[in-house]
Amino acid sequence: MEGGRSSMSSRIEIKNLNKTFLRSDTEGTLCAIEDLNFTVEPGEFVSIVGTSGCGKTTLLRIIAGLDIPTRGEVLCGGEEIRGTSPERGLVFQEHTLFPWLTVKKNILFALESSKRDRRSNFSIVASLLKTAGLEEFADSFPHQLSGGMRQRAALIRSLAVSPDVLLLDEPLGALDSFTRMTLQDEIIRLWQERGNTMVLITHDIDEAIYLSQRIVVMSPRPGRIAEIIDVSSSYPRNRGASSFAELRFKLLKLLNFASDIQQDYYL
């Protein structure tokens, strides 16, 4: 584990998880997730990848407590998840900042909602703004910030309440590649400083390799685990390393986006 936390309260256990939806266009059902089993250890960084419709976001919503399983269970710290909790933060692809509040007040709102000691809130906000390099923009509104700044603000707003678990649903998907790489480094730094358990949903294979200690590859619907891959490289990682390219090709093959003939191209 890279971070400083080791509390078992942030251990996520997914046991025999199934999720089925009623179809709106027929009288039938749609199986989104089938017999999913894996564990995320405290302080671990795990990414989940798979093609669209494989149940990645559904899984993240169940871990967040926004949805419930059809069968099976998801535990956090040994207790079944039965709703949302400030101990499990969630960052969406869109920044979801309140447009009528400044950056500073957006973060304060998160702290006040968590019913923490108000006297320490301002110092927490100041520290987070400094950490994210947003001190000069504390009194700016979201529309006055760049896309990268807005997403950085959304990230530290989720971190403000010090969740044991941070769930990331394609948080960098809408950003340009340069901003995205910068924020990937920011996410790693914050994770290493705080030691949160991190679960990332991403369509970007390079992002999963760059950030994660393990990558869960899901098969097309119904979502099952195709393979769980350990990423053994130490941080900071080199995107140009041969081991990085080899892992990229392995993931592409698992996702049916590469063939043996193409391997030289990726390496």
Structural Rg: 19 Å
**Total strand segments:** 10
CATH superfamily of the largest domain: P-loop containing nucleotide triphosphate hydrolases
Portion of residues in beta strands equals 15-25%
CATH architecture of the largest domain: 3-Layer(aba) Sandwich
What CATH calls the topology of the largest domain is Rossmann fold
The H/E string reads EEEHEEEHHHEHEHEEHH
The first-to-last residue Cα distance is 29 Å
Query: Mind describing the biggest β-sheet?
Result: 6 strands, mixed
Averaging pLDDT over every residue, what do you get?
A: 85
Q: Counting H and I runs of at least 4 residues, what is the number of helices?
A: 8
The CATH class of the largest domain is identified as Alpha Beta
Percentage of residues assigned to helices: 25-40%
Major sheet: order of its strands? Answer: 6-7-8-3-9-10
Which outline best applies? globular
Structural class: alpha/beta
Low-confidence stretches: none
Domains (count): 2
